[in-house]
Structure formats: structure tokens, C-alpha cells
Design brief:
Number of domains of chain A: 2
Number of helices of chain C: 9
Radius of gyration of chain C: 21 Å
Largest sheet of chain A: 6 strands, mixed
CATH topology of the largest domain in chain A: Rossmann fold
Structural class of chain A: alpha/beta
Chains: A alpha/beta (349), B alpha+beta (127), C alpha/beta (428)
Strand order of the largest sheet of chain A: 2-3-1-4-5-6
Strand content of chain A: 15-25%
Order of helices and strands of chain A: EEHEHHEHEHEHHEHEEEEHHEHE
CATH architecture of the largest domain in chain A: 3-Layer(aba) Sandwich
Largest sheet of chain C: 6 strands, mixed
Oligomer: heterotrimer
Chain lengths: 349, 127, 428
């Protein structure tokens, strides 16, 4: 094949347009390289070339997900590229989510290989690592040269359809896909050698890392529940009818905060669920089934709890990454504490 | 005896209903049996046999028999974790390929295997 | 206890007028063998075929694979408690027809599984493609019960292996390997500075087609116990397991347990290999609790610093494996566990049905759900139509040209959980 044609996606910041104040910048395509693309082209030499760069504001992308995706895909399509690169996004959360989402969409729609780069803790990494090759980068743009050094060779391999090696060899974040291969030694010998290393206290590499366990120690019991201010939080996707903030049916990129001041009962006319991972009929009929406002109002009236907090927080747990869920909670739990909430009833589906 | 057999296998039902309380659900799928057992565990019944008994894959055999306690107590999280993992595992297999439409002869073989998995030891269970 | 294993290398197998070993060839008197196996009243007819490495042959459904062995010196006979008296084995001398095997085939139940291809892609995944196999095709009497059928096939294979083993009794072996297990205290005295290590072998023990026998005793009715590694080499453990072809342990695996062999290789160098604990994999959770408690206690009682734990089969044994690992680790004993994976056809699902952070040293035999294509073979021994009805086979498995599209789990021994193979898996 001739020179590999690449379209590059970057945000408003890396395009030099501006920071947060320009985050609503609408997608724009420019011929050739902009910003970090220069570093890429240098690395590619005669093998590949960035033929166009698409610039989009992070807020615009995340708040207009479907439109933004469609617009960007149309732009990419015109250049008929062999490969699509998004980022690297380092530790910028919304940029990371945008890179992952657009890369995934381009691959699906245009059937071309895609590549991104992010810091391991970027929520976009957890959300998209299984569907998109994401190179593990440092946590700030100071790591640009380092990131490009790893991304460029992987980009060429992807574009040429070559076999992609293991994550540690290629530098991408493990996608959680188990692949068989023949080792040099048989399993029993590997087991005995692993045991000897373990006995000696030397480092060894397990062949199957156990899934991550994140066990949370329970807090001490609420001292006096009859005086406590209780808040409701759910991953069951309950939202005011019409889903005003467009919380996604799955892989949520945001949560909602809604007032229930003066609300005694969630009805079919007023609330529904945005969740796409369970049969919504019974929740849509009566959202108290997922977010028990009615029962808590009763308890409030009976004096069994102090007060029901005026706001509830909601998102869809369906396919939503652990890290991004954590980042939601880290943000709103500060608000809950500031609002004097003593305890939270967390409902799931 | 303080136990209930939950089964969609008529051989298990025929063999044990006189000796042990048996909940026979002839038209339940493998997965539905597992889900019913999960509901029972929610209500505080204890799991006595492993839901993924046998090495026959969940998308292979349509039959499943599980023994739980008759007594209800505080829900066991250990049991809940086992049944939930089992349901997840069964769904993974179904996702690969659904259980084929077997001939009656093969179905009967599956019934015999399922019966065998449950009958070993059922009589000398003391608690 | 000291055992010498005399390996007689077998490079070829042929039919002949007399069953004998000559010039590294096993000659098979077909009539005599058929007469011997046909003694079982449960069998209507018996036929014998040969399958050698590289031949275009597919054997299916495979029930068991057994290596021919014979006791030359020392107490007891091969397969004690099953074919011979229950005298304790594991000492003296045993001859092995290395490179030969008996393979039993027959449809015990309608969904039986197990494929051995002697050439092509499939051959790379099963260790038995490298052997000179004598295949027994046994037809049972009409209306036989599965229990009786399983037993008849199991005994047929063992009897044939014993029969061939005897042909090696007076042959001078090509190599003699020596294994010794000292009494525990003496072993500790001998290598005071080396870490003491045991092997915990979990035996499939759940019911029909899921059983393992120790000196003829059904393992589900046993408590965890100690056994000397050399006893395994004399057939103290045999397989009655016909389910989950890829990760069941055939009798061949038990005789040639690779963990035992590889622990012996390091014995006296890096470790002090003091013994084997065998435990079971029962259906009842109370049994799982009891057996794993007992196993951990035995490991502690032996005073070992490390163990390797191996598994057999799919699904609920994951729970036994994790219980054993966790409880042994909680005693302060370091563990390595050997398992295999069911991560889905795309490899993206969670691999095990149970998990614990204490299981931080895992060896895997690979993802059994991986789909592979097996080329057509010129000769089928057994019944190919069966492939459509076995685990990991599916409607349309048999292609027009005779090739097969199947999951790895249909291949006998492909993802063995004793670490018999080089196959493994990695996260990508």
C-alpha cells in the first residue's frame, strides 16, 4: 500500500483555539495537520500522513453526542482515510470520553481501524478500552512526545492490518480480551516456576489477573435515624419525564440532579427511566419502584426519618465504567455533605 | 427433612417427591430455575448444592436441579454471590450459542445425568 | 518409597499375529484383544482400529485415553482396586509403553464429546495426536443403562492397557527414571534448607460421567487424603469422567501427571516436594466446605510453605478451586493454581465462575470457547455426526467438505488443568 492516509481528531484546546470558554466549539475540519499532528507526521516519515484534522469542543461533543458523532463521521468520510486517530487526551476527562466515543463510532460506521491515547485513569479509557485501542499515556500534555512515539508505530500496524501484539509490547491499555497462544513451556512447569518465585518473594506474572475487587467498608450506623437527613441516589436511571438532560440509556457520561421538593409520589405522568438495561415497563408505570420517594415521604411523616433531601441524583448504571461512576459520586457526594445529608439510600436495578 | 429440591427434571421429581419436598417446574428453562433459586435466596433460603453442578455446559443441558433449605433465615451473601455468578456464567454460554433442540433420547440422557448429580449424597444430608 | 519407571519407547503400532513389543513397535493381536474385551456382558461388539501420528484420522467421541503399564517389581498391580487387588502401589519397578496409548470410544449418552485429530490444526491442541493409538470401538447391548455403559467402556480401556502393558514386562527399557518419596520427617531432614512443597490435586467427583476413582473408591465418597506421587504413576487414580473433553483428566493424564513430574524435577534443587493431597469436587456445598477445610488443614499439618493446586472440569469446580486457594493462603501457605478459561468466543467475558484476590498466581490452559476450524480427515473412527451435538459444536459444525468448526472445548485434553500442554491465554 502507498502512504497511509490518516484523519486526526483533536479538541479546541490542542487546536490552540481556547480552553474551557471555547469548549462549545462546533466540529470543524482543516486540511493537513493542526497541533499535535505535526509530531505524528514527523514520526510517520514517508509511511503515513495526516491528511485532515477535525477540531471539536469537548462540551459540544459530550452534550450533543449523536449530532456531533454524525457530523464528525461525515467529515472523516470525505477524506477516505485508512486510519483514524483521536487524541491523545492524557488526563482530560471529557476529551478522553469524546476521543473514545468518536473512535468507536468511526470504526463501526466506516470500518476503518482507529486509535486513541489516554492516561489510564481517564474515564474514557475505562469506557472504551474494550472497543478501541487506547495507548497508555502520561497524565499531562508534557507526555506528548512519549505518547506519539508509542502511538505512531501502532497506528501503522493497525492501518496495514498487521497482527497486534500483547498490550505490554505495543503499549496499549489491555482490552480485557483473552487470546490463546502456545507458550514455550508447558503449564505444569510454568506453575512450578511461578511457585518457586512466589516462595522466594520474587516478582512473577499471573497468567490470569483476577477481576478488580473494590470492596467498600460500611460506614458506622447512623446514630439517630429519626433525626437524619436522607438522600436518594440511584443507578436505575429514574429521571423527570422526557429525560431533560439526555442521560444515556447505557454507558452514561453524566448524572442528573433533580428536585423532589414537594413531591410525594412519582407517577407515570411525571417520571420515567432512561435505563436501557432492564425492562422499563414497571418503572415507567411507577418510578417509586426504583426510587422510593413515596415510602420515604411516609417515613418522614411518621417521624421515622428526619427529612428527605430535596434533591435526588441519578444515572444509568448499565455499562457505565467504574471509574466514571466513581467520578460522579466524588463530585455529588461533596454536595451531599455540604447540604447536610447524613445518609443515602442507594438503589440499583 | 429441611430441604426443598427445585427442578425442571421430571426424573428428579418422580424419584424424590415422596421423600423430599420437591418444587417441580416442568416448563422452566435452565436459566429460569437458576433465577427462581436466586429469588428464594433473596428470601433467606440457603443454597445446599452448587447451581453449576456438573461439567455439562449451561447451553447444553436444559435440565437443572438445585437443593435449598426449607428454613428461611437471614439472606446469605455468600450464597447470593454463588447464584449470581452462576446466572452470569449461564448467560455467557447462552450468548455463545443457545441450547439446541435435542431429540427425546438425548433429553433423557440429560435428565439421567442431572438426576445422578443430585442423588449422590441427598440421603445422607443431615443439615 | 522408591519407584523406577522403565520407559520402553514405542514409535509404531501394527496389527500382528502376536501381541508383543519389538524394535520399538507395538504389535497387536486383534482377535485376542477383541476376545478379551468382549468378555464384558454389557458389550455387544468390539472392534479395534489403529491411529498413528500424522495419519488423516479423526477419533470421536473419545471417552478415555490410557497408557499401557505393567508392574515388574514391587507390591500390587497396575490400576489397584480396579483391575488388581488393593495392595498399595508406587514402589519397585514399573514398565511403560511410552508413545503408545489405548483410546476408548463409544456414545454413552447422546451428547458425548471429545475429538482427537491425528493431523492438522486439531492435532496441535491434543497431546494424544503424538501417540500410537489403539482405538477400541465398543457397541453396548441394547437398552443398556448409561451407568453400566460408562463402566463397561471404562473397564474395557483399562483392561486393554493392562494387556498391552504385559507385553513390555520383559523388555529392557530405553530409559529408567527414578522417583523417591521419603517419610515426611526424613524428607525434611534431608533438605532442611529447601521450602517444603505439596501438590493439591482436585478430582472430578459429581456423579455419572463425572467420576474419578482412587484405588477403586468413588472419589465423591472420600475425604481429602495424602497419597504418594509414585502411586499415581501406578494407576492409583483412574478417570470415569466423560464430560468437558478439553479439561477433564483422562487416565493417561493421571498416570503422567505433569505437576508431579515437574515438582520432582525441582525436588532437592529449589524445593522439597513432600507429597500429594487429593481432594474432590462435589455438588453439595457442605462437601465443598468440608473438603476445602480439610485440604487446608492437611497442608498446614504437613508444614509446607507452598502448594500447587490443580482443577478438573468446568463451572462449579471453580468454587472448589477458589475455596482451596483462599483457605490455604489464609494458613500462610503460598499457592499457585492451575485452571482454564471460558471467556466466550470473542474472549471478552469473565473467564471463571468464581474469583478471589488471594488467587494472585494463576496458570491457565487457555480459553476453551475459542473457535477453531478442523480440516476434513480421510478416516473417521467413531461417529462424526455426534460433533453437532457436543459442547462447543453447534448446528452446522460439520461443513460440506467434512471440515469442522468447533470450540476448543470439544478437543480431548486441549485446555488441560494439570498444565499438560503449552497452550495458555493472555489478556489483549
Amino acid at each position: 500500500m502507498g502512504k497511509v492516509r490518516i484523519v486526526h481528531y483533536i479538541n479546541q484546546f490542542f487546536a490552540g483555539i481556547g480552553g474551557e470558554e471555547k469548549a462549545d466549539y462546533k466540529p470543524e475540519v482543516r486540511e493537513g495537520v493542526v497541533g499535535p499532528g505535526m509530531e505524528f507526521n514527523k514520526k510517520f516519515g514517508d509511511d503515513a500522513e495526516i491528511v485532515a484534522t477535525i477540531i471539536c469542543g469537548d462540551s459540544y461533543f459530550n452534550e450533543n453526542l449523536d449530532e456531533a458523532k454524525a457530523e464528525v463521521i461525515e467529515m472523516v468520510k470525505k477524506y477516505n482515510p485508512d486510519l483514524f486517530i483521536a487524541g491523545p487526551a492524557f488526563n482530560a476527562g471529557r476529551y478522553g470520553v469524546a476521543c473514545g466515543a468518536i473512535a468507536e463510532a468511526v470504526e463501526e460506521e466506516l470500518k476503518i481501524p482507529v486509535l486513541s491515547g489516554m492516561y489510564i485513569e481517564n474515564p474514557g479509557a475505562d469506557m472504551f478500552k474494550s472497543s478501541v485501542y487506547i495507548v497508555s499515556t502520561k497524565n499531562s500534555a508534557a507526555g506528548m512526545r512519549h505518547a506519539v512515539k508509542t502511538m505512531a508505530p501502532l497506528a501503522l500496524k493497525l492501518a496495514k492490518g498487521e497482527a497486534i501484539g500483547a498490550p505490554d509490547a505495543e503499549g496499549y491499555i489491555p482490552r480485557g480480551i483473552r487470546k490463546n497462544y502456545f507458550a514455550e513451556k508447558r503449564g505444569a512447569q510454568r506453575a512450578v516456576e511461578m511457585l518457586i518465585k512466589k516462595l522466594k518473594g520474587e516478582t512473577y506474572i499471573t497468567e490470569y489477573p483476577m477481576p478488580d475487587f473494590d470492596r467498600v467498608e460500611p460506614n458506622p450506623a447512623v446514630k439517630d435515624i429519626t433525626k437524619a437527613k436522607i438522600a436518594l441516589v440511584t443507578s436505575g436511571g429514574v429521571v423527570p419525564k422526557g429525560n431533560p438532560d439526555h442521560i444515556e440509556a447505557s454507558s452514561a457520561s453524566k448524572y442528573g440532579k433533580y428536585s423532589i421538593a414537594g413531591v410525594d409520589d412519582l407517577t407515570e405522568e411525571t417520571y420515567e427511566t432512561a435505563h436501557g438495561g432492564y425492562d422499563p415497563i414497571y418503572c415507567n408505570q411507577d418510578s417509586d419502584r426504583v426510587l422510593p420517594v413515596d415510602v420515604l415521604r411516609d417515613l418522614e411523616k411518621e417521624g421515622k426519618i428526619g427529612k428527605l433531601h430535596d434533591f435526588f441524583y441519578t444515572t444509568t448504571g448499565n455499562g457505565t465504567g467504574v471509574k466514571i461512576s466513581k467520578s460522579f459520586a466524588e463530585t455529588f457526594s461533596k454536595e451531599l455533605v455540604a447540604d447536610g445529608v447524613d445518609a443515602v439510600v442507594l438503589t440499583s436495578t | 427433612m429441611d430441604k426443598i429440591i427445585i427442578t425442571n427434571n421430571k426424573l428428579v421429581h418422580q424419584g424424590y417427591y415422596e421423600k423430599v419436598e420437591t418444587l417441580f417446574l416442568g416448563d422452566f428453562t435452565y436459566l429460569q430455575v437458576l433465577e427462581l433459586v436466586r429469588d428464594k435466596i433473596h428470601k433467606g433460603h440457603k443454597l445446599l448444592t452448587h447451581p453449576l453442578s456438573g461439567s455439562v455446559k449451561p447451553n447444553e443441558t436444559p435440565f437443572k436441579s438445585i437443593i435449598i433449605s426449607k428454613k428461611q433465615n437471614v439472606m446469605s451473601f455468600a450464597d447470593l454471590s454463588i447464584i449470581e455468578e452462576s446466572i452470569a456464567s449461564a448467560k455467557r454460554f447462552m450468548g455463545n450459542q443457545v441450547t439446541p433442540a435435542w431429540s427425546e433420547k438425548i433429553l433423557n440422557d440429560f435428565r439421567i445425568i442431572d438426576l445422578s448429580l443430585i442423588e449422590n449424597g441427598i440421603c445422607n444430608m443431615y443439615f | 518409597m522408591h519407584l523406577e519407571l522403565g520407559n520402553i519407547f514405542i514409535n509404531d503400532v501394527q496389527f500382528g499375529s502376536q501381541t508383543k513389543v519389538e524394535n520399538k513397535t507395538l504389535y497387536v493381536n486383534k482377535e485376542e484383544l477383541i476376545t478379551l474385551i468382549s468378555e464384558d456382558e454389557h458389550l455387544k461388539s468390539v472392534d479395534v482400529e489403529l491411529a498413528k501420528p500424522g495419519e488423516s484420522i479423526r477419533i470421536t467421541p473419545v471417552k478415555d485415553v490410557i497408557e499401557p503399564r505393567v508392574k515388574v517389581a514391587g507390591s500390587g498391580g497396575i490400576f489397584p482396586g480396579v483391575l488388581t487387588k488393593v495392595d498399595t502401589v508406587g514402589a519397585g519397578r514399573t514398565h511403560v509403553l511410552k508413545g503408545a496409548a489405548v483410546v476408548t470410544t463409544g456414545k454413552v449418552v447422546g451428547f458425548q464429546e471429545g475429538i482427537i485429530d491425528m493431523t492438522g490444526t486439531g492435532a496441535e491442541y491434543t497431546p494424544f495426536s503424538k501417540l500410537n493409538n489403539v482405538v477400541l470401538i465398543c457397541q453396548p447391548v441394547d437398552d443398556i443403562k448409561p451407568h453400566d455403559h460408562e463402566r463397561a467402556l471404562r473397564m474395557a480401556g483399562l483392561k486393554a492397557a493392562e494387556y498391552f502393558g504385559k507385553a513390555g514386562k520383559d523388555i529392557e527399557p530405553d530409559e529408567v527414571l527414578s522417583f523417591e518419596t521419603l517419610p515426611l520427617l526424613k524428607s525434611i531432614e534431608k533438605y532442611p534448607k529447601l521450602p517444603k512443597v505439596a501438590y493439591v490435586q482436585m478430582l472430578q467427583s459429581q456423579g455419572l460421567l463425572h467420576d474419578t476413582y482412587v484405588y477403586g473408591v468413588d472419589a465423591k465418597q472420600t475425604l481429602p487424603t495424602l497419597i504418594k506421587p509414585t502411586e499415581l504413576m501406578d494407576g492409583a487414580i483412574i478417570s470415569g469422567n466423560c464430560v468437558s473433553a478439553c479439561d477433564k483428566n483422562t487416565t493417561y493424564h493421571h498416570l503422567n501427571n505433569p505437576i508431579v513430574q515437574d515438582l520432582f524435577k525441582q525436588h532437592g534443587k529449589e524445593i522439597n516436594f513432600v507429597g500429594v493431597i487429593i481432594t474432590n469436587e462435589n455438588v453439595f456445598l457442605a462437601d465443598k466446605q468440608r473438603s476445602s477445610n480439610w485440604t487446608a488443614d492437611l497442608a498446614e499439618y504437613l508444614g509446607v510453605e507452598g502448594v500447587v493446586v490443580s482443577q478438573e472440569g468446568f463451572g462449579n469446580p471453580d468454587t472448589d478451586l477458589i475455596m482451596n486457594c483462599k483457605k490455604i493462603e489464609e494458613k500462610g501457605i503460598k499457592t499457585v493454581i492451575v485452571t482454564d478459561e471460558y471467556a466466550g468466543r470473542n474472549g471478552a467475558s469473565q473467564s471463571l465462575a468464581d474469583a478471589d484476590p488471594k488467587a494472585d498466581a494463576v496458570v491457565t490452559g487457555g480459553n476453551a470457547n475459542e473457535v477453531i476450524k478442523l480440516p476434513p480427515m480421510e478416516k473417521i473412527i467413531g461417529d462424526l455426526s455426534i460433533v453437532n451435538t457436543i459442547a462447543g459444536g453447534f448446528d452446522g459444525s460439520v461443513q460440506k467438505d467434512g471440515s469442522l468448526v468447533v470450540e476448543l472445548q470439544t478437543i480431548t485434553g486441549a485446555t488441560n488443568e494439570l498444565g499438560f500442554n503449552k497452550l495458555t491465554a493472555k489478556g489483549f
